[in-house]
Amino acid sequence: MDKKAQAVVDRLIEYASKNSDAEVLRYMRDKAESVLREGVVIVRHSGEIDASQKTLLFESAKKRFPDAQDVKLERDDSLIGGIEIVFRDYRYDGSVRGKLEELKTKLIEA
Amino acid sequence: MEALGIDLKLIAFQMVNFLILMFILKKFLYKPILDMLEKRRKLAQETVSLKEDLERKMEDVGKEKEAVLMEAKKESDSVIESAKEQAEKLAAQIEKEASEKAMNIVQKGEETLRAKEQELRASLKNEVAKIAVETSEQVLAKSLDEDIKRDIAEESIRRFAQNG
Question: H or E element: which one contains B76?
Fold first, then answer.
């Protein structure tokens, strides 16, 4: 991605952080990351992940995304617990925060 | 005759005088007076006739006036009745329109109230959900220790490995 496109993405993220809710902001961040880090599987986690969990995670990621160049782990305590995986347009949300968001949506829609 | 003192000549003369006097009186006094009397009689008769005519006409005019008045009264009654009917119709129409407008206003008010109620409910629900989730996030963020987080991560990774 060239510098101009990246600047646009950065400005969009900045705008979203000022004007939008957390869900929109995360969506935009994921989109921006999928462009900026093309081919990299991002795994966000809250709390420590032990070696066996990492192994299982890497194997599963490589199996699911055979064309992925790399798998990167990032600690994100805002998840409260669980993991979140982003690869291109794919997003797996197994975090406590995600579950709470689902609960919030269900409460609003009920 | 003379012995009796009767003068025939004088008598004849007196008679001639009388006849002449009669003739003059008749010619110059009686006839004009009679003519004048006749004229006055005729005039009086005409006056009476005129009076009778006038009375008849007055009577006719009175009758005609009465008829005209009756007709005018009928017409005015009809006009008043018609105006009354129109006024009643107009009043009914105005009442109907006012009633419809009032109904519309009430309906719109109810709709607005319902919409506001829905809006408030949605807003309240939204707010309650937001507060509930935010509170839960805060409580969980503080209460979950590393062991529990590891367990949750384990469960998430296992689910991803199985289903994605």
Answer: helix B31-143
Distance (Å) from the C-alpha of residue B108 to the closest C-alpha of chain A? 27
Q: Are A53 and B153 in contact (CB under 8 A)?
A: yes
DSSP of A5-44: HHHHHHHHHHHHHHHS-HHHHHHHHHHHHHHHTTTEEEEE
Sign of the torsion angle spanned by Cα atoms A12, A35, A31, A80: negative
Interface contact B155, partner A, CB < 8 A: yes
Query: In the β-sheet with A82-87, what is the strand arrangement from edge to edge?
Result: A70-75, A40-45, A82-87, A90-95
The 10s digit of each residue's pLDDT in A2-47 is: 677 777 777 777 777 676 566 777 777 777 776 777 788 999 998 8
B128 touching A (Cβ < 8 Å): yes
Contact predicate A38/A67, CB 8 Å: no
Q: How far is B120 from chain A (nearest CA, A)?
A: 12
What is the predicted ipTM?
0.71
Q: How far is A11 from chain B (nearest CA, A)?
A: 27
Phi, psi dihedral angles at A43 (to 5 degrees): -115, 115
Find all residues with CB under 8 Å of B80, minimum gap 6, and list them. none
Residue among A46, A48, A56 whose CB faces B161 most closely: A56
